Every structure is written in C-alpha cells, then in structure tokens.
From TrEMBL, chain A:
GO terms for molecular function: Rab geranylgeranyltransferase activity. The lineage of its organism: Eukaryota, Viridiplantae, Streptophyta, Embryophyta, Tracheophyta. PROSITE patterns: LRR, PFTA. Its EC number is 2.5.1.60. This is Geranylgeranyl transferase type-2 subunit alpha. Catalyzes the transfer of a geranyl-geranyl moiety from geranyl-geranyl pyrophosphate to cysteines occuring in specific C-terminal amino acid sequences. SUPFAM superfamilies: L domain-like, Protein prenylyltransferase. It comes from Actinidia chinensis var. chinensis (Chinese soft-hair kiwi). It comes from the Eukaryota. GO terms for cellular component: Rab-protein geranylgeranyltransferase complex.
TrEMBL record, chain B:
It comes from Actinidia chinensis var. chinensis. Residues 522-539 have a biased composition (Acidic residues). GO terms for molecular function: GDP-dissociation inhibitor activity; GTPase activator activity; Rab geranylgeranyltransferase activity; small GTPase binding. This is Rab escort protein 1. Residues 516-539 are annotated as: Disordered.
Length: 714, 539
C-alpha cells in the first residue's frame, strides 16, 4: 500500500490502458451529450454510473449526478407529491454508485465528496457508514480519505470525542506507524482539553499520559516519524504560552534617549547605545511581540507624554507580507524643534494590552498588560554639522573597528533590551510541571540516543534542551543568565548537518538561531561582539557601536528582540540566504551583508522597511547567479505587490537594456535613501545595472567604494 | 481382524511404491510419488489416517498409546517359488503412559475431542509445511486459525507476553523503554541481515558463534536474551553455559529461526500472529496429503496390517509384502512407518534395529475448563530451562487450544505439553513440574470445585480434569532397500521432518521433482490464500 515505487508502465500495460480508454470514449461522449442537453432520464443516469464505475476520477460526472438528483427532486415535487420512500431510493442509488467507485479506487476524491454530499442531504441512514469505513481502514490503515470521512460521519452521528479517541487508540495499538491516527488523536484531544471534559482535566495529567503512550512508539521504532510528530504536538501543548506577549521594546524601559535634531551629536560624553542622530525629527518606538499579532493601534496602545504630539500615533506592522499582522510594530514620535526645550526631560509612558484588541493569528488576546517608560532629551544643535554617513564613506575593514573598552560595560548600566516576558510565576505548579516534564524528556531522549543513532531523536533533544533553557531563564536577569545547554545543542546540530546532508539547510538555520540566542543571552557575551567604529579621538566620527557577527556560518537571523537598538550591523562572511527579521531593527543605518549567499533582490525585501538605512553592502553575494529562484515562495513576487503601477520603464530606460528585467531591484531600491551601496561581486552587477541603480537612487554618493561624480541635471 | 474374508482383494498387485503407515512423512511421500506419476499403494493397519501424527478422540487416543505393544508374531507361511517371507514386527514407541482422570466429564464427551498425538505442534505462517501445502494444493482441504498469543515464563515464574513483533513491542508493558529500543533494533538487524545487503550482513565469524554470545555482544539485557532464545528461536537446552550445553544454538540457526518467526507475522492478513493451527487438529495434515495422493491415483487401504515382507530367496532383496488378507503385493520401493522394525537381513549398515532412535520426548495432554490466560483461547506458553525448577534441562512448551479449533467440546481447553529428555524420569519430572505450575490438581476423592469460584479471582489456576503423560521415542529417516520414516520430533513445527522427507524422496526417486509446480489446483475460498499483498487465510 505504501512505500512502493512508481513504475513506468510496460508496453503491454500501456496497451491495456489504451484499450480501456478507447472503450470509455464512446461512453463519455454519450454522457456529455446527456449533460449538455440537460437530460436526466434513468438511462442517462445509468450511462453516467457506468462511466464512474470505470473512472471514478471524472468529476464532471459526479457533478452531473448532483444536478440530476436536484432536478429530479424539484420536478417531481411540482408535479406530484413525491413520497419519502422514493426520495430515499434515489439517494440510496447514489450511495451505491459511490460504493462501486470505491471498489475501483477507494482513494477517489470525487466519490468521497459525492457520498458526503448525499449524506449531508439527510435522507439516508448513516448507520452503515462506520462499517464501510472499517472495511476501508482495514485495507489501508492510513487512508486519509477514510479518516477524513470518518470525522465527517462522527460529527454527523454525534459520536463523542471519547469514542473516536478510543478508535485512534485501537488503530495505534494495531500499528503505531500511522500519521492519520496520531493526527486525529491530536485533533480530538485538543477538543477534549478545551472543553475540559470529564477525565480530560487537568491538561497536565492528560498530556503526561499521552507522552507516555507516544514514548512506547518512539522507543520501539525511533526511525518511524509518525510518533515523533505527535510528540512534537504534545511538547507544543506543554510549553507554548497561548496568549501573545510583548517581549521587547525600543526604547527600553527606564532608558534615557538623547537625540539631536540635525545630526551632529557630540556622543563622546554620552552612551553610544542610547544616543543617535535624528534628521527627520522623529524617533521610532518599537514593540516586539512573542508572535505575529494584529490590532496594534492608537486605541490598544496608550502613549502618555507631557506633549500632545503622541495623540493619534500610527502604528505600522513591520512585515513584508502585507497581511496586517507582524511580530514587530513601529510608530514614530515627532519631536518638532520649535516645541521642545533642549535638554529638558521629556518622559513618556507606553501602556500595552490594557484594552483588548491585540490578537495573535490563532485568535488569542494579548492578556498581560505591560507598561514601559523612557525619557527623551533633545540635544541642542552644535555648530559642527557632522552627519556621519554624508561626510565620509563607511569602510567595513577590520582596521576601523576597535574592541569596546571596559568602561562601556560599566558606564552603560542600561538594559540593552527590556525583557518583558517574565510573567510566568516560577513558583506555580504549572511552571514546575513544565520544567520537570521537560527535564524528564531530556533524560529519556539522552537514553534513547545512547541506544540508537536517530536523527529525529537528536533534533528533538536539541529542541527540548533549548526549551529547558528558555524556561529556566524566566525571572533571571538577562545580564547574567547564561544558556546552560547551548553548546550541546550546537553540537547536536553540527552532528545532524553531517549525518543528514539532505536537510542540512534546515539544521543550519536552527544552528544559526541557537548561536544567536547564545550570543545575545547576556550582556557580556553580546559586548564581546560590539566594536567601536573608528577611534574615539582620531576623528569627529565616533561613538558608533557596531555589532559584528562575521564568520559565524549564520544562515538565518534571530534573537531580534535583543538587537532592536543596533544602528550598525556587520553580518559579512556568513551563509545568509534571507534576512527575514531584520525589518524590526528600525534604528539600523549601516548594514554589511557582503560575502553571503543572498540569491535575489527579493531576499532583501525587509530592507524596504528600514527607514534609517543609509549604508548597504551586499557585495560578493549570489544575486543573479541563479536563473530560477527556488526560494521565491518564501519571498515576494510581483504578483503580490503593486509594483507595476509605478514602474515606469521609460523613465529608467537605458540604451539596449531591457530594464524590465530589473523589476526586483527597482522594487527594493526605489524607496531606499541609500548614500552608499556596494554591490560588486554579484552576477547581476554589470555596468548597465550600475547605471540603472544611479537612476533609481539619486541619493547615492558612493557605489562600490567609488565616489560618484554626479552631473547636475540639465 | 482375523476374518481374512472381510479384506477385499487389492488390484493391481504390482506397484512402484508400497508405503505402510499414514503418518505425515509417509503421506507426503505418497502424495509426492503419485504427483510424480508413480503407482503407489498406501496401507495402514489402523482404522484412521495419520498414525503417530493423527488427532484422535479421547478414548481412542488412550487406547492407541497403550496398545502400541510389540505385535505377536503372526503365523508366517513360507512363500512359494523364489520368495522368502520375513515377519514384520513392530516396536513400542510410547512408554510410561500415565493417564489420570479427575472428572468424568471429558470421557463423556470423548468423541468431541480431536487430540493430537504429536502435540504441541503449530505451523509458522512462513514455514515450509505451509509452503508445501500451498504448492501441493493440500491447503484446500484445511482451514486454519491463529494462535492468539505467546507467553514465556520469566525468571520470577510469571508469564509475560512474548514481544514478537513491532506492535507487540509497542504494546508490551513489561519491557522498559530502552529495552524496547534494543529489542526492536535487534529485529531490524536480523531483517537487514536477511535482505542480503552486504553492508548489514552479520559477519561469518559471528554466525558461527553461539547465539547467546552474539546476543550478549549486541548488548541485549538477559531478560531479552531469554525471550529471544527460548520463546522466539525455541531453543530446547539451557544456552547459558555453552560448554556444558548439549545443543548449542548457533547464531546462524538462531537468526534463521527469528527470520522464520519474523516473516510469519503478517504473511496472511487474517492471521494475527506468527502461528496458526489447523481446525480439527494436526491430524488433518496427513489426511490432506493422503487425499491429494488419492486424487493423483494412489491406492488406499486402511485396517490392513502387513504380516510379512517378501524377499528374494537368493539375493535377499526386497520384492513385496504379504498383507493380513494373505494377498501378496509387489513393488520396487518400500517405505515403512517408524514403528515397524526393518528385518535384519535387509539392514546393511547395522544389525541393531534400534540404531535410528535418537532420544525421547515427553509429551502431555491436559484437559481443563479454564484458560491459562483469561480471555485468551489459543496460546503458546514456554517454560525455558530452569524456569520451573533448578535442574530443568530442557524447555517445556505448552500449547493451549480452545474449542474454536474443534479440538475439544465447547467450554473446555486442551493443553499439549512437550519436553525433550534423555530418559523417562527426566521427561516426566519436567512435565509434572509444568502441570503443577499451570493447574490446580484436585485431590483424589474430592469433587471438582475449582471451576465454581474462578470468576471471583482470575488468578485461580485452571483445574485439571484429565491428563495423559507419555514418553515417545524419536527415530530418524533411513534410506535402505526398505526406507523408514521418522517419528514426530520435539520441535513445534514440521520443518525438520519435512526436510528429512524431502531428502528421502530424492534418494528414492533421484530423477523426480518433489511436487512439480503443475500439481497445484485453484484453491477455493476459505483456505490458505496468499494474495500479492500477503493476505487471507480464512474461514
């Protein structure tokens, strides 16, 4: 039934197929004739039935039968009163037709749908259906058509969830290698748990029992994946906090933010982490949630300030998919020069979740009201107008970066990001149960791995260890907490990359996320990757802190919640293919992505949301190297955007170049106000493309390290 | 039987092969020779088919066990012409027959029993007997049902389910999680070895080592080794000390036995586990092969004792037989059932007529009204060496058959026991220990009360109603001018007997095929029917 390779038909078989088809053809044309003429006679129905018996996949014929039945019923009613018995016999005939079709192919979608349709009309007995299903499930215990239909029948018959659960138990003990049975079990248990049915409460008890059951399967055959999927579901039910939480913000709670209105901030006396230049007269406020949410707006978020500038703030979701939901949301506070007293404290207080409305994609409300406060100081303009990015070209060479002095740690007692997720009481029984269960699971799977070399077991252990670390980190200061197991987890992922090369990209992504979690888990390890850009004393440009995460084999970005404050980020010499998540780093002005594996401009889409970005290095990537973009489904396509409407080919027309090929680049760069771009070392970056870029981005001053001599426009 | 007029004359009188005795090996030979186009005469002095492989009503069984005394030499009339008549004598195959009746009930229903003489015996779905029945078409005369479960007696004296398949391991409650992993990965190892994939082959060196050493090398805990050795590979002798063990199971054989078990599970969709049992008892098998032989032209005469063998006066070679009716019948080849003594002039190798005896097996048949395991009708129970008492040398295997297999009246269970032994004392000791472990035996004189309060406590042992314990000699095949077939052996299935029979056939008829493919006729519904997806054996 399963695991059999598809064979190419032999010439004899092909001949047989052809013969069968030639026999069907006259029947089919006869049928179509009836269909076309809206003939619903007994004879016509018989032809249709014959056709379906031979080929149950013919959906037109099924639809014809539905129309015919409706027609016969409606017409008889008008002429003579139709008795219930004959209605019943009409529908029984339909059931018989489906059964004959099942005999031909019990995985025929059309036949199953038709049977559902007949039964939903309510004229037929449903008592036989479970017996019928038993026959089909005996033939093939994993037939998902039969499982689907079983759910339908169970609902129609009002069979209790407990009874159906028992059925899955029986099927599983027959043969536990059955995704459908495990899946149905998870669906039924979710319902039972939600309704708190007698015997299925508390959740902890039920989940522990289920865990014990699935352990039997996992240990009996660690290489069978069906049980592992169910196990993953249990873990998710155990660990996951249902309602979305605000986990991080910028500015952080209790912070003092120094801004200058026209650049030229003298940062030598201020903490570089909380000072920044403000050209537009606005500062961002970022809310970072535990999962994507919607409903963030001025009525769900209350911002109190001594000025009224905070009224009617517009919150924007930081996501590239236009869905209206996002994990990170941003608004911009206006600090118009004339209204402010320089150097005066401007305290602000933001309250989240005090009124309902912020909802996760699963429909759960943000149920934990949270507040954070910060103070903004506006610095008076100095005579020196030093706008970093405009004055001098940023150079990413190592010689320009200096290790942060120790004073940084001491003089910046700020929490670089505010941890808000410590809402779980670690004395509660639920918390203790969670911690204990996960610890047990870890011990168990260590034992399993000592018995059998099992990929999915390693993956599960890695996940469990990280979940354990996260639970243990609750209510611990993020300055001091270290992830206890991250080294082991990283080793597990390395091991998996080697032993399971076909999924190495997935393991690499997971590895990257864990590595970043480890790096950002406490201030000390994070500061090890923070560098000063150029020397404090040698130049007027100083005080910039750059987070350098180079040469770490990263294929994905994560732990964004710890990195919202970053203004300068160096991710060069990694294996990034996507920069998803970067869109939340609204302060980012300089970004180095050189020497990665970015394959398309679409992969750079998150950059479109970075309003402050001035300097971008995407040199030595693979843009244009792949003719077919296999990852596009993860990114955007022209179909999901209104790019066409403002895409004026003639405006950017360059001699002998089909600029329409550059739509992706146009789409990314048209809204960026870059002053500096490095794109050398990509297949796409030929001379014509560069000409095109200059046209798209008039703000550009340096391209590939060369200062542009722009000719004034005529 | 002395009324010679009651015997009809046999016609013709010349055959390619005359066989005396309708035991399973003789029946297979008759069937195979007939299928190969030979003319065969098949005689049996008994009024039933099967000889030592038959299933009999209770009283007949008791009588058969006790009557097997050497027959008094019949008055032999010297033959005329060039032939000499040599008396054919039999030997006693059963000794120390011990029949105990604690209740009149079984005897009252005597005819409703079909008791196997050679029990306990089962078929593995994938074993060669099943293949042969399918190939020869014999399966159409029989129906089978599953043995529902197997249990093995643990070191603590408790019976635990034998985790013999993936789903059995999953459901098992006595194994720890890590033990489950080890056991199932060992099964996978065996599977990998059998798939002739060079990488996963077990090394030749390991295959020659004792199985128990290999199991230890694979880090299997003692409890699992115990289960594999005695409940799956069905080892007879204690394997724990390979220096003193009489019959060390080699890894190669152990793996092959596991493979048989493994491929048996799921071969037929309507068989629950690895083991099946024929409805109406094991005696159906010889009968089935006889029917098959008859279809191919073999001539059958029951109740026909053979009084003498006819030998050439000058060369002393075999020419024919003289049957009880006095008729003389001639053939080129001759096969005698195991209880006949081949007269010494015809024995070239050794004058000792018992040279082919190769040990004894103690057998027992017990009747009760309560299952050993509540809710289970047909099951196998293994008592490995030392599990019953410290000096227990060989495994005691117990097969319980309920009334669904038509072996006994409804509401009763028959338990077959067997153990290999060197002498009667040793064998009886094993059987008695097993009987005592399984049953509560009513003290003689007190009425049977055990079954009345069984519902209150499921742990109450079944009450023994009737039992027969006996010691059976084992013999091997021999190929001479007159060949003999073997007695039932001590194993659970017929594989060894079948191999020996097949070999004998090839010696007798070197140019003939053992059941050519064409003999197979279409099976009807309700019989062994192996569909491409491995399904169906039904009734």
């Amino acid at each position: 039934m399963h695991g059999r390779a598809r064979k190419t038909p032999t010439p004899q078989e092909e001949k047989a197929f052809a013969l069968k088809a030639s026999k069907l053809r006259p029947l089919q044309s006869q049928f179509l004739q009836f269909h076309h003429n809206k003939t619903y006679t007994k004879e016509a129905l018989e032809v249709c039935a014959k056709l379906l018996e031979a080929n149950p996949e013919y959906l037109t014929a099924w639809n014809y039968r539905k129309v015919a039945v409706e027609h016969i019923l409606s017409h008889s009613e008008t002429e003579t009163e139709i008795d219930p018995e004959s209605i019943k016999s009409i529908f029984s005939e339909e059931l018989r037709v489906t059964e004959r079709a099942f005999a031909q192919n019990y995985k025929s979608y059309g036949a199953w749908y038709h049977r559902k349709w007949v039964l939903s009309k309510g004229h037929s007995s449903i008592d036989r259906e479970l017996q019928l299903l038993e026959v089909f499930l005996k033939k093939d215990t994993r037939n998902f058509h039969a499982w689907n239909y079983r759910r339908f029948v169970a609902a129609l018959k009002n069979r209790s969830d407990e009874e159906e659960l028992q059925f899955t138990t029986d099927m599983i003990s027959d043969n536990f290698s059955n995704y459908s049975a495990w899946h149905n079990r998870s669906v039924l248990l979710s319902q039972l748990l939600e309704k708190k049915v007698q015997g299925y409460f508390p959740k902890e008890k039920v989940l522990t029992e289920e865990c014990n059951l699935v352990h039997q399967a996992l240990f009996t055959d660690p290489d069978d994946q069906s049980g592992w999927f169910y196990h993953l579901w249990i873990l998710d039910r155990m660990v996951k906090v249902e309602s979305p939480l605000l986990v991080s913000t910028w500015p952080p709670h209790g912070s003092s933010i120094n801004v200058s209105v026209k650049g030229c901030l003298d940062k030598s006396t201020l903490s570089p982490m909380t000072s920044f230049d403000l050209n537009t007269g606005t500062i961002p406020v970022i809310l970072y949630f535990s999962e994507a949410v919607e409903g963030v707006n001025s009525s769900t978020i209350n911002v109190e300030s001594i000025y009224d500038a905070t009224q009617d703030l517009i919150w924007t979701p930081l996501s590239t998919n236009n869905s209206g939901s996002a994990q990170a949301w941003v608004t911009y506070l206006n600090f118009l020069e004339e209204k402010f007293h320089f150097l005066q404290a401007n305290p602000l207080k933001v309250s989240v979740g005090h009124s309902q409305g912020i909802v996760s994609l699963n429909g759960f409300h943000c149920a934990h009201p949270t507040e954070f406060e910060f103070t903004v100081y506006v610095q008076p303009p100095t005579s020196q107008h030093t706008d970093l990015q405009c004055l001098e070209m940023i150079s990413w060479g190592d010689e320009n970066f200096h290790i942060c002095e120790t004073h940084l740690k001491e003089s910046s007692p700020i929490k670089f990001s505010y941890q808000l997720e410590n809402n779980e009481d670690n004395e509660s029984t639920t918390y203790k149960w969670k911690a204990e269960t996960i610890a047990n699971e870890i011990a168990l799977f260590r034992e399993l791995l000592s018995e059998a070399n099992c990929k999915i077991g390693k993956l599960t252990l890695a996940r469990l260890l990280m979940a354990h670390d996260v639970i243990m980190s609750y209510n611990k200061s993020s300055d001091t907490y270290k992830l206890a197991h991250s080294e082991e987890v990283l080793e597990l992922y390395c091991d998996l990359m080697n032993s399971d090369p076909s999924h190495s990209q997935f393991y690499k992504d997971e590895y990257s996320l864990v590595l970043l979690q480890q790096l950002t888990s406490n201030l000390e390890s994070l500061l090890r990757h923070c560098y000063h850009y150029r020397d404090l004393s040698s130049s007027s440009i100083h005080g910039h802190i750059c987070l350098r995460l180079c040469n770490l084999s990263l294929s994905r970005i994560g732990s964004i919640k710890q990195l919202l404050w970053i203004q300068m980020l160096d991710l060069s010499h990694n294996q990034l293919r996507s920069i998803e998540g970067l869109e939340a780093m609204q302060l980012l002005s300089c970004l180095n992505l050189s020497h990665n594996q970015i394959g398309t401009f679409s992969a750079l889409e998150p950059l479109k949301l970075l309003k402050a970005l001035k300097v971008l290095n995407v040199s030595y990537n693979e843009i244009g190297a792949h003719s077919v973009n296999t990852r596009r489904y993860l990114c955007s396509s022209p179909l999901s955007h209104t790019v066409g409407s403002d895409w004026n080919f003639s405006e950017f027309a360059i001699d002998s170049v089909d600029v329409a090929n550059y739509w992706e680049a146009f789409f990314i760069f048209k809204d960026l106000k870059l002053t500096q771009l490095d794109i050398i070392g990509n297949v796409v970056a030929d001379e014509k493309f560069k000409v095109f870029l200059l046209k798209v981005m008039p703000t550009l001053k340096w391209l590939d390290g060369v200062e542009l001599q722009r000719h004034p426009k005529p | 039987m002395d009324d010679t007029l009651s015997y009809p004359p046999i016609d013709p009188i010349n055959f390619d092969l005359i066989i005396v005795g309708t035991g399973l090996p003789e029946s297979i030979l008759a069937s195979a020779a007939s299928a190969a186009g030979k003319t065969v005469l098949h005689l049996d002095p008994n009024p039933f088919y099967g000889a030592h492989f038959s299933s009999l009503p209770l009283q007949d069984l008791a009588a058969f066990l006790q009557s097997q005394s050497p027959s008094p030499p019949p008055s032999s009339a010297p033959s005329d012409g060039n032939l000499t008549a040599v008396e054919l004598t039999t030997r006693r195959m059963y000794s120390d027959v011990e029949i105990t009746s604690h209740s009149p009930e079984p005897l009252e229903h005597s005819r409703q029993f079909n008791l196997d003489l050679a029990g306990p015996r089962v078929l593995f779905c994938a074993d060669s007997a099943v293949d042969l029945m399918l190939k020869s078409g014999t399966s159409q005369y029989m129906e089978f049902k599953s043995v529902d479960a197997s249990f093995v007696c643990g070191g603590d004296g408790k019976l635990v389910t034998v985790p013999d398949s993936r789903s059995a391991i999953f459901k098992d409650t006595s194994l720890g999680l890590a033990e489950k992993t080890r056991l199932s990965s060992f099964f996978k190892l065996v599977e990998g070895h059998l798939k002739s994939d060079d990488e996963r082959k077990i090394s030749a060196e390991d295959l020659e080592s004792p199985f128990v050493a290999f199991l230890s090398k694979m880090r299997l805990p003692p409890k699992i080794q115990w289960i594999i050795l005695y409940a799956l590979a069905m080892a007879d002798y204690d394997q724990s000390d390979t220096d003193v063990c009489k019959d060390v199971l080699k890894t190669r054989d152990g793996i092959n036995r596991l493979a048989l078990y493994h491929s048996s599970v799921g071969r037929f969709s309507n068989a629950l586990g690895a083991l099946i049992y024929p409805i109406y008892g094991q005696g159906e098998l010889p009968q089935g092969f006889c029917r098959r032989a008859a279809v191919k032209g073999c001539l059958y005469v029951l109740r026909m004792p053979v009084n003498a063998l006819l030998l050439d006066k000058f060369s002393g070679s075999y020419k024919g037989v003289k049957v009880a009716s006095g008729q003389e019948l001639f053939s080129h080849q001759m096969v005698l059932g195991p209880s006949f003594i081949v007269p010494s002039p015809l024995l070239k190798s050794s004058p000792d007529s018992l040279q082919d005896v190769r040990g004894k097996v103690a057998r027992g048949i017990c009747i009760t009204k309560t299952s050993v395991k509540p809710g289970v009708s047909n099951c196998l129970v293994i008592y490995p060496p030392k599990s019953l008492y410290p000096e227990q040398v060989t495994s005691v295997r117990v097969l319980q058959i309920g009334s669904s297999l038509a072996g006994c009246p409804s509401g009763m269970f028959v338990l077959y026991l067997s153990a290999l032994c060197d002498d009667a004392n040793q064998g009886k000791k094993s059987l008695h220990a097993a009987v005592n472990a399984i049953f509560s035996i009513p003290i003689s004189g007190t009425p049977d009360h055990g079954s009345t309060d069984e519902s209150e406590n499921t742990q109450v042992k079944p009450t023994l109603l009737w039992s027969a314990l006996y010691i059976q000699e084992m013999t091997t095949c021999s190929f001479e001018s007159i060949s003999s077939t073997p007695m039932p052996d001590g194993s659970l299935n017929y594989n060894d007997i079948l191999d020996a029979t097949k070999e004998l056939f090839h010696k007798m008829f070197p140019d003939e095929e053992f059941f050519p493919e064409t003999t197979f006729s279409e099976p009807e519904d309700g019989e062994l029917d192996e569909s491409p997806n491995g399904e169906s054996l039904d009734s």
